[in-house]
């Protein structure tokens, strides 16, 4: 896998190094469009929503895109379309300010826009709860 490292977002170089050895991250990748994520155990990539990147390092991985309802929807849609084209094993969108999300690809199959599996269940929302929220904000709530 030959890539230009300048086309990689923050945190992606470590994943690229792992992929070059023939390995892959065991955990879901958190791709943040809202800045650094504090206290996360999963690998985190921080991307500028207005820039374009080489996403091939995410081929056949599980990826959860973290955005907010203030993130430009056209930009988020473009990014999700780029990731769907790879393809990914799982692709989801988590809106940190709403603490809710959508499935885009599940087990390599695109979720139907009006399908039941499109929306995250209560258990899934609880599993992702807190992602993208700063600890200082959680204490004030």
Number of strands: 6
Give the terminus-to-terminus CA distance.
Answer: 45 Å
Compute the number of helices.
4
Tell me the radius of gyration: 15 Å
In what range is the share of β-strand residues? 15-25%
Main beta-sheet strand count, sense and barrel state: 6 strands, mixed
* Widest sheet: strand ordering: 2-1-3-4-5-6
Residue stretches low in confidence (pLDDT < 50, at least 5 long) are: 135-141
Query: What does the average pLDDT come to?
Result: 88
Structure in words:
A hairpin with a 2-residue loop joins strand 5 and strand 6. Helix content is 24%, strand content 20%. It contains 4 helices and 6 strands. It has a 6-stranded mixed beta sheet, with helices on one face. It has 141 residues and is an alpha/beta fold. The chain is globular, with a radius of gyration of 15 Å. The protein has one domain (5-140). It has helices at 12-20, 73-84, 122-128, 135-140, and strands at 29-32, 44-46, 62-67, 90-95, 100-106, 109-110.
Give descriptors for this structure.
disordered C terminus; single chain; 141 residues; 4 helices; globular
């Amino acid at each position: 896998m030959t890539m230009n490292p300048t086309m990689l977002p923050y945190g992606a170089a470590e994943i690229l190094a792992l992929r070059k050895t023939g390995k892959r991250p065991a955990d879901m990748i958190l791709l943040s469009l809202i800045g650094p994520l504090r206290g996360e155990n999963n690998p985190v990539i921080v991307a500028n929503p207005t820039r374009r990147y080489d996403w091939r390092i995410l081929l056949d991985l599980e990826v959860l895109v973290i955005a907010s309802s203030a993130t430009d929807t056209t930009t988020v849609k473009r990014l999700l379309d780029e990731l769907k084209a790879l393809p990914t094993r799982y692709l989801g969108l988590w809106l940190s300010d709403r603490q809710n999300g959508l499935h885009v690809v599940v087990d390599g199959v695109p979720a139907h826009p009006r399908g039941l599996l499109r929306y995250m269940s209560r258990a899934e929302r609880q599993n992702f709860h807190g992602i993208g929220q700063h600890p200082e904000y959680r204490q004030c709530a």
